[in-house]
Amino acid sequence: MKTVNCRVSGKPLTEVVDFGKQPLGNGFLTPYQYKDEYFFNMAVAYCETSKMFQLVDQPEPEKMFHDQYAFFSSTSKYMEKHFKEFADLILGSKYISKENPFVVELGCNDGIMLKNFAQNKINHLGIEPSTNVAKVANQNGVKTISEFFDANVAEKIVKEHGQADAFLSANVMCHIPDIKSVVKGIATLLKPTGVVMFEDPYLGDVVEKTSYDQIYDEHVFLFSAHSVQYLFRLYDLELIDLLPQKTHGGSMRYVLAHKGAYPVSEAVHKILEKEKQQGLDKLETFTKFRQNVEKSKSDLVSLLKEIKSTGKRVIGYAATSKSTTILNYCGIGPDLIDFISDTTPIKQGKFSPGVHIPVKAYSEFKSAYPEYAFLLAWNHSEEIMANEQAFMQSGGKWITHVPTVRVVK
């Protein structure tokens, strides 16, 4: 999917960082699949008109979201709690009508958030393009269709169910290249008093922490308040609130509604001003970001080589999509990391995309602790470290690259 113009404004893009040849972030594979492994050139660019930070190229959606999709949200207890709180916020809000409310979630995964509405007997609909995950959601009692949402799908939903009180999404909107058709669909689907609430990894945190692993094939966009405001204004939808989140190493929850339906909160004005101070509305900020990315790469490779030269073992902790960017950009393979430990059965026994590090069951990590564990799921560090007291008491140390490359005892 080649583009040289911004997907939102249509204006020319300016390239910021070229990460070179990258495989699919979630493309864990077996050795017989190596010869057919898919790669694309991954570069990110910035549009000075829309303020949108985006991939230049992105693989076709069908390559990324399919019947073998390897991520299930419910594997994280922390995320289960987070999505219950998200649902409770909606259930207790003024946005839900008293009579026959209807809630739609885009990218509902295995039903981790919508099940809270189902349990409260709220009419709901999940939209999940990965058929294997959608099947699990339906088994969990969450009404789910397997579609790629756009303006046409929105019209079909309105005809069958009526308009929605709330359109929700978490870590999904940033995945969608044809984002304008999605927002057009949302405008059609929402009641006049309806709201959109979605959250995604936040560009401000990525720039501040040099967490460049938030950039991978699925994340075609990294949003800021400025870029979201520009996008939704095209369809007369207004940014009415902003709620920073800790999830995924720093996310933002955006609240939008039809123009004039609700007052704009003070948080919107404050965060827009903070983004200007941070320089998220200026191209030169991303030149500095590129320099920080290059330094992070150099420091990480040097650290791993130094550790391996002493005969110590390093094991990767969690086979995340984000780790694919780090490992391939930095050229880190089985020579530096023995294997990656992961609790997801569909990934175990496979190899990491591109660099082909073995992925093994968590029991392999626990049965013989290494001297070092590279925290590939750094955004879940609190939950992980709370669960891994035994590893640390054995003398195990963590390697992290966010916000700087370092060893944590």
Automatic annotation (TrEMBL):
InterPro entries on file: Methyltransf_Zn-bd_dom_put (IPR013630), Methyltransf_Zn-bd_dom_put_sf (IPR038576), MeTrfase_14 (IPR013691), SAM-dependent_MTases_sf (IPR029063)
Annotated C-methyltransferase domain residues: 247-403
CDD domains attached to this UniProt entry: AdoMet_MTases (cd02440)
Alphabetical keyword list: Methyltransferase, Transferase
Tagged with keyword Methyltransferase: yes
GO biological process: methylation
Domain Methyltransferase putative zinc binding: 6-65
GO molecular function, one term: methyltransferase activity
Signal sequence region: none
One Pfam family from the record: Methyltransf_23
UniProt name for this protein: Class I SAM-dependent methyltransferase
Organism: Leptospira limi
Native organism taxonomy: Bacteria, Pseudomonadati, Spirochaetota, Spirochaetia, Leptospirales
